[in-house]
Each structure stands twice: as C-alpha cells, then as structure tokens.
Amino acid sequence: MNLTAFLFRRLWQMIPTLLGVVLLVFLLFNWVGGDPAYVLAGKMANPEDIANIRHQLGIDRPMWEQLLIFIRQIVTGDFGNSWATREPVSEIFRTRLGPSLVLLIPMLLLETLVAVVVALIVSAVRGSVLDRTLMVTSTVVMSISLLVYIIVGQYVFASLLGWFPVKGWSDNLWRNLTTYAVLPVLLGLMVSIAPSVRLYRTFILDEIGQDYVRTARAKGLSEPRILLVHVLRNAAIPIVTNVLMGLPVLLTGAFLLERFFAIPGIGREIILAVERSDFPIIKAATVYVAVATLLANLLGDLLYRALDPRVHFE
Amino acid sequence: MPIERASPGLWTLAWRRLRRDRVGMTALLVVGCYLAVVMMALMGWIATDWTREVGVNYAPPVFWEQDQDETAQRSAVGHDTPDRPIALYGLQDPLAPVLAAIRAQYPQDRDLVEAPRRLSLPLGGDKWGHDVWIKVIKGSETSILVGLVSALLATLLGTLMGAVAGYFGHWVDDGFNWLYGVFTAIPYLLLVFAIAAVLQQKGVITLILILGLTGWTGVFRLVRAEYLKHKTREYVLAAGAMGASDARRMFIHILPNISHVILVQLSQNVVGFIKSEVILSFLGFGVPVDVVSWGSMLNEAQNELILGKWWQLAAAGLAMAILVTAFSMLTDALRDALDPKLKY
After folding, report:
1. Which residues of A touch B305 (CB under 8 A)?
2. Domain of A192?
3. Would residue A219 count as lying in a domain?
4. Could you tell me how many CB contacts below 8 A there are between chain A and chain B?
5. Which residues in B lie closer than 8 A to residue A82 (C-beta atoms)?
6. Disulfide: which of A211, A257, B142, B311 matches B124 by Cβ 3.0-4.6 Å?
C-alpha cells in the first residue's frame, strides 16, 4: 500500500476513535456529572434562576439534542465562555498554547537526546561499575516524586540561591526560554530522563542478545559500529514508540510545572478549571488534546514504518 | 528402581535464582517491611490516631536541636487561651450564669487537663502538632494501598484484554483496539482530572477505581504486541498441533514467556499509580481531607518549607522514595530471575 492510501485510511480510522472520545466525554459531563446549574446559580438560588441557567446551558433539552450541540461545538470550535471567568474558551486555548510549547518542546528534545546517549553508553559498558552505579542512581532519582523536586528545587535554586526567578513569564520568547523556562525544564528532566534511560537500556540489551549481533561480531565489526548502526536501528523501534507514548506523561509533568512556576499554559488552565468545576474548559481540553494525541500517534506509526520494514499494516 | 525427581518448575527456579540475588533480596525485605507496616496499620495495631495533637506546633525532630530555644519559648508562653478569670480585669462575665449551668451539668469535664504537649517528636510535628511519624505510617498505608490495588486491577484488565485481542485478532482485536484508542487518545492524567472534576466525591475506593479503570492501557499495548509475536511461534503452533485449547495456549504456554514484560509493567504501574495518587492528593483532587496520604503531606510540607520546617517534606519524600526504589529493584531482580536468557 502506498503512503497516501495509508494516510487516508488512518485518518478515516480516527473517526470512530474520536467519536468514542466525544461519547466518553459527553457521558462523563452530561450524564455522570449531574446538574451543574445548582453550582452555577450559587448558594441562594431560586428555581427561576436555575431554570434560566439550565435553559442557557441547553441541559433542559433531551440527551440526543445535547450530544448534537456538543458535536457542533467541537466542529465549530466554539465552546462558549468559561463559567468562571467569562473568557471565550477558544481564546483561552489560543493564548495558553504558546507557553506550554515553550516548556514542552525543549523538554522532549533534551530528554530523548540525553536518554538515548546515556543508554548507549551504559549498554556499551554493561556489567561494569559505571553501569551499575548509573542504574542504581537512576533508580533512586526516578523514585523521588516530581513534587519533591519542584518544592525543593524552587526553594533552593530560586528562593535561597536566586539563580533563577521563583516564578513568572514574559511576552518575550527568548527571555522565556533562557530565563523562566530553564528551572522548570531542568526539574522536569530530573524525573523524565531516569526512567527513559532504564527502559532504553533494556531495549538495547534485548537487541544485543539477538543472533544478528553475534553475526556482526563474527564478521569482525567494531563494538561501537555494532551498537550505533545495528543495535540502535533495531532498538529505535521501541524507543520511538516510547517517546510518543511518553508525550502524555510529559504533559503530566507540565501540569505541575506550569502550576508551580506560574507559567500561563494549558496545563495550569486545566488544573484551575478542575478546581473551579469549569466544565467547558475541561471538555474542550479533553477533546482537542485527544485530536492532537491521535495525530501524534499517526506520526509515530509513520516513523515505525520507516524504521522497521518488517512492519506491514494489513 | 531409581525414583525420578520431577524437574523444578519455572517459579521454583526463579525463586532459587532470586535467593542468590543479594540486591533483590534486600529490596524484597524492604518492600516486605512496608507491606507489614501497612498491614499492621490496617489492622489498627499501630498508628491508630494520627489526628491527636501530641506535640507543640511545628515540634522539631528529636535529633534537630536548632529550634529548641524557639520551641521552649513558645511552650513557656503556653497555649493561646489564658485560663485567667475575666473578673481579674474588673469586668462582669455576661455568660457566667450559663457557664455555671453547663459546668454543673457536666461535672466530670472540669477536671480535664490538657495533656502536656511534647517539645520534640521522633520525626517532628506539623502545624497542629500531629506526630509526623504516625502521619507517615498512615500516609504510607493510604498511598501504598491505592497504588497496589489499582495497579493490580489495571494489570489484570490490561493482561486479559491484551491476551484476547492479540491472540484472537480480527474483530475482537478491532473492538479492544477501539477502546484502547479512545482511552489513550486522552492523556492519562487529563482523563483522571476530568473524572475527578465530574465525580466531586472523594474517597480511597473512588481513587482506586479511577486509577485502575483508566490505567490498563500500557499493559494492554505491550501484552497484545507480545501475543501477536508469540502466537505464530513454533512452540505455540506445536502446542496447537498437540490439541491444546486456545485458553491453554494463551495462558499456559504464552503467558509465562511474557511474564517478565507484565511484571515490569506491573511494577511501573504501582510506582506510577503511587505517583498519580500523590499528585492528585497534592492538588486536592484525591483523598478526602480526613485521610492522610503522602500527597496531602507534601501539600502541607510545601508551605512549611518556606518557614524552614523541612521534616514533614523529608519524611513523606523519603518514605516514598525508599519504597519506590526498593520496588523497582525488586522488579529488576524478579525479571532477571524469571528470564535467565537475559544475561547482562
């Protein structure tokens, strides 16, 4: 099958998944969630107010009609206004996306690069003191909660030593990258590199045990060449999958980092929305992040195909 | 006639190998200690009442002498309600008759004296003088139980679904893949947040169900991939040729060969769910306020650190780090013991 047909088929296959997501979100918020009018109307609500709000929100209509409204909101991108701040939901996402990306992209690039390099080094010297020391260190490092890193890191490096600003953000991309995002990115890397190194090391060692490596050694290839050319190409398949599977985990880290360092990104907005029961924001975030994740997965599959010619999609 | 001894099985061999692994046995011992503490706390033998205010506010740990002067001063000043008759100030107490009536009604309460508060506690005290040592035990109980039970639930779900999907393929696989697609399209913590926002009902059981029912996807993906790979291998085809049923091939033949994958994933899940629980409780979306967990302790500790009271942060952070480290090392040891082909 050629690439275009494959792409079209995969995009076509996304539709049932998206419908599933829409259904799941709809069931959660419109059926399990109960009646938000009582929350919105405040403590001293009279029945008329509640009826008014119910009418405004459209939740006095039948379920199927509500589902249609929800789908129309997704297609048009108009989720109405935030319940808490009255700011249009689309506006919130448009303005909060940038800061999140400024935090996430350096983190993803640095993490993958450092983790693969370190994993290759420890695999090359497997069984040595360096390997065992690094593995024990990484096990300990990844066992400490991100929360502890953030709390201690922010206190020591920002409050006590003053190397970085405690929190904040600016309108200048360069200033954000070089000043405000540095400490959050480093703290995020503290927790994300160690598990990746451990995992990539097992991927690489799994490959080193294979017959083709013995063949390569028998041919007289040098150990670095075996590792970098033969093993890495095969280990790259699970590594790429893992990087893409790790995206949501990265987003998890971003939730906390954005909250602690007052970075006006999507993660912080979502936590605020959960605290305020601001349903339109959570609904929109869930659906749109799902679309983004699906596109990332498609990219992962394309890479998978490019890296491993044995993989064929039926 | 010589008696033939049965050759040792997979698990016997694995146990023999594990027993030779000193790091693995140490990790097993540490995890065992934690589990024993959790069991004892569950049975109500230790750390029964973490809400008792046994120390002065922010009582320092016994080994930390720096704050002793400050604490002594505070305890000399006494509690913030001076027990001095209002008449000394030359005022008439307007509530005196009511108070007298109440005192007459409950005579036994008059003899109640506030228990002396301790100036220092083994691991220090929090803002209200709760014993951090007892809080850590109760916190461990909550966090470990939530992590363990939800990880078992998620791993069981993921393994069953992955095995069925990978083994049978076709429309069964399509169905499970659809479900997998829906659940993984939404990042895990975002999904958990959304459910927490909707439910508005906090509790340990709710937390376990949320984490367990949403967290099966990682296991599913790996197990399904392994079954896809293994179902066409010769040993499975041979088992089929000898008349082994589908269930037998799936769970007797293939499952042991991929058990190290599931175990690694189970350990990652326990660790991951403990971390998720801690994050959720930290943000206030997890355990209710009357339950203490590592997350709620870290939440309090965040503000305490700025005041220089580091002990609750250290206690909760260390308790968590030690358990998670030991658990990861135990899993590595188990993996090595179960899969001797992997020789590093």
Report:
1. 151-152, 155
2. 89-307
3. yes
4. 144
5. none
6. B311
Residue A225 lies in a domain: yes
| CATH number of the CATH domain containing A187 | 1.10.3720.10
The amino acid at residue B265 is Q
Cα angle A260-A261-A264, degrees, rounded to a multiple of 5? 105
Distances (CA, A) of B257 to B214, B223, B269, B341, B343: 26, 11, 20, 11, 16
Question: Chain A residues with CB inside 8 Å of B324's CB?
Answer: 142-144
Min distance B20 CA to chain A CA atoms (Å)? 17
Of A25, A127, A273, the CB nearest to B344: A127
The residue whose two tokens read 């309460």 is B109
Say if CB B176 and CB B228 are below 8 A apart.
no
Whether residue A313 lies inside any domain: the answer is no
Nearest CA in chain A to B306: A155
In terms of Cβ atoms closer than 10 Å to its own Cβ (0-12, 13-18, 19+), residue B29 is exposed
User: Quick check: B322 and B29 in contact, CB under 8 A?
Assistant: no
pLDDT digits (tens, 9 = 90+) for A269-305: 888 888 887 888 888 888 888 888 888 778 777 777 7
Could you give the ipTM of this predicted complex? 0.77
Number of domains in chain A: 2
pLDDT along chain B (344 residues), means of 10: 68 80 87 89 76 70 60 48 57 77 71 63 71 83 90 92 86 87 83 82 83 88 88 85 83 82 82 86 82 85 79 85 86 74 49
Which residue of chain B comes nearest to A132, CA vs CA?
B344
Closest CA to A231 of A250, A266, A205: A205
Residue that is last in its domain, among A50, A76, A102:
A76
Say if the Cβ atoms of A24 and B182 lie within 8 Å: yes
Q: Closest approach of chain B CAs to the CA of A297, in angstroms? A: 9
Burial state string for A97-133 with b = 16 or more CB within 10 A and e = fewer than 16: ebbbebbbebbbebbbeebbebbbebbbebeeeebee
Identify the domain boundary among A32, A49, A76.
A76
A94 and A222 share one domain: yes
Q: How far is CA A62 from CA A19, A102, A110, in A?
A: 19, 43, 50
- Do A39 and A101 lie in one domain? The reply is no
> Which tokens in the block code for residue B186?
């939404």
Q: Based on the fold, state whether residues A40 and A103 are members of the same structural domain.
A: no
Which neighbouring-strand residues pair with A81? A88
**A118 and A32 assigned to the same domain:** no
Which residue in this structure is represented by tokens 């090595």? Answer: B336
Tokens of B8: 């040792």
pTM of the model: 0.77
Pairwise CA distance, residues A275 & A255, whole Å: 13
In this structure, the answer to whether residues A40 and A133 fall within a common structural domain is no
Check if the beta carbon of residue B328 is closer than 8 Å to that of residue A143.
yes
Transcribe chain A into DSSP letters. --HHHHHHHHHHHHHHHHHHHHHHHHIIIIIIS--THHHHT-TT--HHHHHHHHHHHTTTS-HHHHHHHHHHHHHHT---B-TTT--BHHHHHHHHHHHHHHHHHHHHHHHHHHHHHHHHHHHHTTTSHHHHHHHHHHHHHHHS-HHHHHHHHIIIIIIIS-SS-SS---S-HHHIIIIITHHHHHHHHHHHHHHHHHHHHHHHHHHHTSHHHHHHHHTT--HHHIIIIIIHHHHHHHHHHHHHHTHHHHHHHHHHHHHHTT--SHHHHHHHHHHHT-HHHHHHHHHHHHHHHHHHHHHHHHHHHHH-TT----
Q: Are B298 and A290 a contacting pair at CB < 8 A?
A: no
User: CA-to-CA distance for B53 and B125, rounded, in angstroms?
Assistant: 9
